[in-house]
Amino acid sequence: MTETNPTASSTTYADAGVDIEEGARAVDAIKGCVRDTYRPEVIGDLGGFGGLFSIAAAKDMIDPVLVSGTDGVGTKLKVAQRLGRHDTVGIDLVAMCANDILATGAEPLFFLDYVAVGKLDSNEMAQIVSGIAEGCKQAGCALIGGEMAEHPGVMDPDDYDLSGFCVGVVDRPSMLDPESVAAGDALVGIPSTGIHSNGYSLARKVCIEGKSDAELNVPLERLGGASVLEALLTPTRIYVKAVKAVLDACPGAVRALAHITGGGITENLNRALNQRTDASVALGSWEVPAVIRYVCEQAGLSEDEALKTFNMGLGMILIIDPARVSDVRAALKRAGEESFEVGSVVEGAGEVRYESRGALFS
Q: Rounded to two decimals, what is the model's pTM?
């Protein structure tokens, strides 16, 4: 038997860089905002080995289908860290996942998060999770679990990264299906709040790198009085409640839906098409947000490059029965969303075309 030398020095987990007590304080700090997201289907509370959620939400469905999605926030986190504000990136995290599963017509049910940090700070963690909880409330889903992982020696002490996982449900007969898209259908776009959470490696390179904090925090009239950092940190819009209101009010009117994320309109709208159709998008038929114009100018992007890099002001594009456009737009307006008719579906091979070339920034 090997005996422990009582005079030898010992090394604790805290000495290795992991503070269990700070982790406990972080959990205590987030309990309230997490519980605020709970739906009636949530079973139990924080602290279990797994999040529990009743499938009662699907009890009236003919053929319930679970839909899952996972995503992160990417290098937008560096903007939050530069500004020292951490209470909005959680909204982005939920938006990227919930908006994705919404593209099938699914209702988001619950959400899980994973937060990796270099050095755990309970106050900062509370800000991050409060944003995730706010995003869940906007999406109508419950935050039922997650993980906070401290990674000393792997990440810098002030660094962190976020991942999210969303599960929803849709009745198979009501699923949105690109196979139902036909020539003559209308394209209706819902505005974005700005860059959302894609294209930040480019945005940071041309707008932030090499600039002082003083330069980046100057209010700019062209950005509506916001600084560059504030404008870039604007949270991603969550479209769940507005789109679900349309689906409920106008059954059968929406054929398919495209969430405009990385790859811009060019590489996302085609995902809502079948191989018999193209999307003909009329440039200039909607307003490009000031922050996107600013970043594109700083980068010197061509129209084509801009359209495959950023959302260009459209966070969601709905493909709609042409006879129901007015009904859908009215339902969106009642839900508090502005909308634009931005083109139509034509015969083709599953690609995105652009009309009125040169009008994007006009």
A: 0.94
